[in-house]
Amino acid sequence: MTPTAQIIMAGKGTKRGLDSDDNEFSPNVKKAKVESDDVAVEAVCENIISRFKMSNVLSVNAREKKIIVNGKVTDQDAVVILEKTPFTEDTLAEMFNGSTVKPDMTNYIYSTYHLQASPHLNGTVIKTTLVCPVTKNRIRKYIDQESVLVEETRIDYEYITLPFIEKHKSFSLQWVYNILQKRAEVERIVFEDPHPQTGFVLLPDFKWDQKQEDDLYLIAIIRRRNIRTLRDLTAQHIPMLMNVFCKGQMAVLEHYSLPASKLRVYVHYQPAFYHLHIHFTKLGFNPPSCGVERSHLLADVIQNLQCDSYYYQKRTMYYPLREDSNLLSKFKAAGRV
Ligand code: M7G
Questions:
Q1: pTM of this prediction?
Q2: How far apart are CA 5 and CA 48, in angstroms?
Q3: CA separation (Å) from 253 to 87, 116, 205, 241?
Q4: What pLDDT digit, counting tens, does each position of 255-270 carry?
Q5: Signal peptide span per the entry (predicted)?
Q6: Which of 3.30.380.10, 3.30.428.10, 3.40.50.150, 3.30.1340.30 is the CATH number of 147-333?
Q7: CATH for 1-83+127-144?
Q8: Is the CB of 175 under 6 A from ligand 1?
Q9: Which of 76, 188, 298, 316 places its Cα 20 to 30 Å from the Cα of 70?
Q10: 271 is an annotated ligand-binding site residue
C-alpha cells in the first residue's frame, strides 16, 4: 500500500500561531521545513504515520468510506483521518479485464460478485490526513455530534458571537498564513492574485486528493487579514469578492475545463477558521457542510451587498452548532437557545 499522506505537521521543530486552540503547545518551538525538499518532507510524513499508535475511534462514516481515529505519535496526541478514494474512469477497463472474479449470487437478471482487482486499482491508495500534535479541543471536532440550529440576531452577534470570536478565536490560522506567505502548499497553488486589497490564493482544499474532478474542491483564501466572516463584509468589499468570483472561475476553467455553470462557489457561516475563504466545489458533489443551513452562495452575497451595504451586519443569521460547541454554551447561557 502506498498511502498519500497530507500532513498538518506542527510537532517538534514546528512553529504554530498561538490562539486559544493552540495554548497547549509551547510557543518556543522552531519552524518545520515544509516548502522545499519534497522527498525529505515525504519521508518525514511516512515516518510519522508509521509511528502512529491508535487508541480509539472517533468517527466512522460508512457512506463516505471514512474513519477518524485518535492516538499518539510518540508522546503527542494525534488524529488520523483515513478515506477511501473514488473510482477513476481511466482504470475501469483494467478493473474489468484484469481482476479475479468470484460469483456471489444470481437471481433472474441480478448477480453480485466479489471482484478482486489488482492491488494498484483496488482502492489501496488511502487518503490519509494526520493532525499532530492535536489539542483536546480539536479532537472534539472529529467526534460525531448532533447539531442545533441557532438564530443569531445582530444583537446576538454583537454580545455573544463577536466577543466569543475575539476571545477564543477558535482554530489557529497559521496554516492560512503559511499559504499566503508561501511557506506551505506552494506547489499546489492553482491561481494567485497578489493585490493586497482584492487579491487571493486559490488552491485545492485538503479534503480533495485531486485524483478526479468529480469531487473537485478548491478554496480561495483572501489576502486581506481583517475579514473574519460574512458579518464583516460591506459594499466596500464587493470589488474583492467579484475579483475572487471571476478570476477563480476563470482559473478553474483553465485548469480543470470546468465552466462556471458547473461550480458551487460559497462561504460558510459560521466558518471553522476566522479568515475569509471561499469554497469552490463541483456542482453535483455534495461535501459535508454545503447544505443551506451553513452555506451562502458568493453570487447571493455580492447581490445582497449591492442592495444594502450593511446587509450582513443587520440580518439575523441561522446556522448549526455542534452540541458540544463553546459558542453554543454562550447562546445557552444567554437564554438564546
Ligand atoms: P470552513 O468553512 O472554515 O470550515 O472551511 P469547515 O472545515 O467546517 O468546512 C475551511 C476549509 O479549509 C475546509 O474545507 C478545510 O478542509 C480546509 N483546510 C483546512 N486546513 C487546515 C487546510 C490546510 O492546511 N490546507 C488546505 N489546502 N485546506 C485546508
A1: 0.79
A2: 10
A3: 23, 37, 17, 18
A4: 999 999 999 999 999 9
A5: none
A6: 3.30.428.10
A7: 3.30.200
A8: yes
A9: 188
A10: yes
